[in-house]
Amino acid sequence: MLQTNQTQKIYYSLRIASAMCFIGHGAFGIITKEIWTNYFSVFGIAHDTAYAMMPYVGSLDVLMGLIILFYPIRVIAGWLVVWGLITAALRPLSGEPFPELIERAGNFGAPLALLLLTYAGNKDFKHWFKPIRIQHINNDEQKLKRVKICLRIVVFLLFVGHGWLNLIEKKGLLDQYRAFGASNPATVAHIIGSLEILGAVSVLIKPVRSVILILFVWKMFSELFYPHWEVFEFVERGGSYGTTLALFFLTGSSWQSLLNITRQKNNEGIVSI
User: pTM higher than 0.90, yes or no?
Assistant: First the structure.
């Protein structure tokens, strides 16, 4: 029973996270967020044309998010990995700092981890167009280890990226600290950035449940205070929360219990044969 509960927590964390990311991202396209024109310009699309295209691109994002939320299909999850990586890469390609890309690792990391979790070794092309069902997940030790490695890398990247943005004193972050009454927001940014990078490195080297929980709570809290469209900003970063939470469920005593149950079932299968 524990195995089923743990699997459900990981599965739904990643599925909801993927949906949140693309629903929030799509909302910005629908409301025509001005900075998106920079990303369209990477493809040589003019300013006015970009504004005209934004609602269509945003609506498609929202649709993909809703599909993965209510009727998850493997090919949609695969598309979210590709599109999440492309949209994140457009930031440095349009002139923004490189950490803007890796700070969004949750955008493509959540659907990637979901694909790894639900992979059943089926190489049939039609399999990509079938719905992902939790009861169809075959949990084996090697698969869970691959999912955990993926999540460790993703969580490492997103916190290193955010910490890096603090260290280079990103204006939006400084404005948040200033709004909280910090007299020297740059110093606050350096302290927070250093702690985030330290936490990220610890997750990559040896994940500890208590540290991951602190990072999860901090990420949820720190994304609540954007000056404009804060609801959409919070929702768009669902990949960050979901991957961190899924890693929490896969770490420590719960992870060991899950592995022990998996091994026991495998051994029982061998004995019965």
Answer: no
